[in-house]
Amino acid sequence: MTAPLTTPPRGHSGGGPRVARRTPDGWEDRPYASFTLTPATPTIGAEVGGLSLAEPLDDATFAELHRALLEWKVLFVRDAGLTQAAHHALGRQWGELETHPFMQYVNGPQPDDAPQVVRFEKGVELTGYENVWHSDVSWRQVPSLGSLLHAIEVPDVGGDTLWADMGAAYDCLPDDVKARIDGLTAVHDWWDSFGRGMTPQQRDALRPAFPAQEHPIVRTHPETGRRTLYVNAIFTSHVVGLPADESDELLDLLYRQATFPEYQCRFHWTPGALAIWDNRATQHYATSDYFPQRRVMERITVIGDQPF
Does residue 80 form part of some domain? Predict the structure, then answer.
């Protein structure tokens, strides 16, 4: 494999190959019998074909779909044929589902009959705010395993979502940066993100149940064993034990790793499409370039494990 180019200093205009691995050491490539896979890029993202999601998957098919998720980090299914109930049932095959505690404050009323479904209804009155690289709910003590986002209504042009492979981003860091961040932790918090959509009284009432959390800057994926960068520009506030200026400089360097196209894939939504992604291995960015057109999405998030 070609040696990766180290991250150039700020203002440097140099380029060159930035070759990343798709899978961790020891991964066994095996064919998939239940569906087809069409890669979106060499390292991240694949479109699933020949699979119906209208009914719960049998154990063998689900095991293959989960293996594909670990391999490609984000999967896309066009014309998934999902009802809200089928969407919910598919998420439950991965595990217990999250009820988001803050979405009502920043995204308007949520479905009363489906508290584990987050509805993003954007248009003229409510514009997008997810156009910053992030990993969902990293401010929880136990962040999510993954998310399943279903397109209900999409604009003709715009509204794409991008994902970045944070295992590839870590692998391609210079050795001196890897040594610098080894063993460091950072604080993740919702106060300056979701908290901005709340009144001071609402923030204060929610704070005891949702304190800031400390997570490793480099987490180990619990299933693949791959090391991944686990800081993001929305929810990570500072590095524990570093002066503020040094913390800001280091986090800025690490945040930028998600912005390299070599580690990214991009998906153009169509009505009925579904994206399933691994929040332990990726960050994502929802482009906000479609207003005043409408974009309506429904997301289900699966509870994961505490980063280590």
Answer: yes
